[in-house]
Amino acid sequence: MAPQLLVVLVFFFWPASQAVWQSLLSQDAFGISSEFAGLLNFSRLWADDTYLQSFKVTAVFSFLVAGCGLAIALLLAVMANGVIRGAGTYKTLLIWPYAVAPVVAGVLWVFMFSSPMGVISFALQSVGIQWNHLLNSTHAMTLIVIAAVWKQISYNFLFFLAGLQSIPKSLLEAAAIDGASPARRFWTIVFPLLTPTTFFLLVINVIYAFFDTFGIVDAATQGGPGKDTAILVYKVYFDGFKAMDMGGSAAQSVVLMVIVMALTVLQFRFIEKKVNY
Amino acid sequence: MIERRPVANFFSHAILILGVCIVAFPLYLAFVASTQSQEQIAASNPLSLIPGSHALETYRIALFGGENSRGGTFPPALPMMWVSLVTAVVIAVGKIVISLLSAFAIVYFRFPAKGLVFWMIFITLMLPVEVRIGPTYAVVSSLGMLNSYAGLTIPLIASATATFLFRQFFLTVPDELVEAARMDGASPMRFFWDVLLPLSKTSIAALFVIQFIYGWNQYLWPLLVTTNENMYPVVLGIKRLIAGEAYTEWNVVMATAILAMLPPALVVILMQKWFVKGLVDTEK
After folding, report:
1. Which residues of B touch A246 (CB under 8 A)?
2. Among the four residues A72, A192, B89, B98, which has the most C-beta atoms within 10 Å?
């Protein structure tokens, strides 16, 4: 008990309160003096176009990651649940990306899209698309979304598969006897029963896109071109450690903390209720 | 599954195989790149899909370091992998030990301010280390823990996922066991060692896998707290190999990437059963 409390106090509550405190201070360029600035850092944030831009980028990014990731994983899980033989093998072959570090995922995908040796950029070129994720922000965004989705598929897949396997067979058999087609069985029985899993995964995926993708962004685009793929966590890091704006960075941390807390509370409230039909 | 539908079954297999191929394609490409020489990759447009013959050489350079074509040197990956291994194991073991003890205390003892303590631990569940990098960095540096294993690991241990899981698990242990142990005169610690610990073996194994991967794959935090080459974990080392896109020696980068992926991937695949169970149980 005592050790965890100590660790939590020193490395969690101290930093967290420091963040709140620093977000209220304004420091000079050398960090020698700081004075109390009230909510100045926050109002500066709201007036800062790049920060609002970063919000938009993060929203688009996490929406795409969660949407694509869930859809692909659900498709694969339904298929794996349906096959008679080999489901275990497919599972083994699909779970390993979970073990890949985000940075490594970023590096792998950058390599495939880089020119001239990248295989995918070459394939795209032969159909007339000039791929350049260093200059084109749509391309850059696509790249990090693909890398992020790729890494997260195994996680979603495992949960969907577990969810599918816990659906009682008798329900499906009864529906089949009543003459419901497989598609209809899926949309009227399986999908509604999966809602708790889907919802849980949705929250987890958004949290993942918000925070765990730092490595992917740093390896693939470094927030570029311009600031078009600078997600919020990347901006906290960049402003705090590269641009040395500690007050601004701390204020951003506080905003992020509030977002995570909101997401977590949302998640727990719904899990308690077990979204069910 | 219900009707016999050979066409649908074939279709399912086809989609699954396609999925597996797409998922595995980047890995295959990385492998191919790691078996070619720098000149082959630089001259290729695009990369050939057949493995080359320079595998041994590339992996030797990646593991033990060596000269690159521009006269610089590659940092060897072996010591970096050692750092990663130590970090991952310390994080996994540290988290499990600390969480077991505090979950034990929370579930089986009554002490003042228990609610507050539980709430304090629980709230850490919500904030990943990425959110509080700046201030945590300040704390770690003021404690003089930069460039040390302590600085790399302890801040990451400060999170409650494991405590929460063990708490859930301990709550399902029947009270009769506690009573029986007390009747037989076992002290609380004895009960913990002889009853609770053997019961939670599977959860511990599952958590170990998850935390090991978590520790091994840390990137942002080591990026901040390590400035000394001797303390770089391998994940960080890969990023540093990509200097600028034009001069990157992709064969070595990819060899290092594969080396960095290997240990956690092996852990996941070999301990698959516990890992899947642990993952699905932890989060729900």
Report:
1. 134
2. B98
Inform me whether the C-beta atom of residue B189 falls under 8 Å from chain A C-beta atoms: no
Q: Is the ipTM of this complex over 0.95?
A: no
pTM over 0.90: no
Q: Burial of B238 by CB count in 10 Å (0-12 exposed, 13-18 middle, 19+ buried)?
A: buried
DSSP characters over chain B: --S--HHHHHHHHHHHHHHHHHHHHHHHHHHHHHTS-HHHHHH-SS--SS--S-HHHHHHHHHH-EE-TTS-EEPPHHHHHHHHHHHHHHHHHHHHHHHHHHHHHHHH---TTHHHHHHHHHHHTT--GGGGHHHHHHHHHHTT-TTSHHHHHHHHH---HHHHHHHHHHHHS-HHHHHHHHHTT--HHHHIIIIIHHHTHHHHHHHHHHHHHHHHT--HHHHHH--SGGG--HHHHHHHH--SGGG--HHHHHHHHHHHHHHHHHHHHHTHHHHHHHHHHHT-
Average pLDDT of chain B?
A: 78
Q: Across the interface, do B8 and A82 touch by the CB < 8 Å criterion?
A: yes
Mean pLDDT of A205-209: 86
CA distance A191 to B2: 17
Asked if B127 and A16 come within 8 Å (Cβ–Cβ), the reply is yes
- What tens digit of pLDDT does each residue of B186-241 get? 888 888 888 888 888 888 888 888 888 888 888 888 888 887 777 788 888 787 77
Q: How many CB pairs under 8 A join A and B?
A: 268
Higher pLDDT, residue B5 or A275: B5
Query: Which residues in chain A are contacts of B233 at CB distance < 8 A?
Result: none
Tell if the CB–CB gap between B219 and A150 is shorter than 8 Å.
no
DSSP assignment letter at A97: G
Which residues of chain B does A88 touch, with a Cβ-Cβ cutoff of 8 Å?
none
Greatest CA separation for chain B: 77
Pick the CATH number of B79-229 from 3.40.50.150, 1.10.3720.10, 3.30.1050.10, 3.40.350.10: 1.10.3720.10
Task: Give the whole-angstrom CA distance, residue A104 versus residue B20.
Answer: 19
Give chain B positions within 8 Å (CB) of A164. none
Q: Which numeric CATH code is attached to A49-273?
A: 1.10.3720.10
Do A92 and B269 lie within an 8 Å CB cutoff? yes
Domain spans of chain B?
79-229
pLDDT given at position B42? 67
Q: With beta carbons less than 8 A apart as the criterion, state whether A140 and A225 touch.
A: yes
CB < 8 Å from A in window 216-275 of B: 216-217, 219-220, 223-224, 235-236, 238-239, 242, 245, 250, 253-254, 257, 260-261, 264-265, 267-269, 272, 275
The domains of chain A are located at 49-273
> What's the gap in Å between the CA of B52 and the closest CA on chain A?
15
Q: How far is CA B197 from the centre of its chain?
A: 23
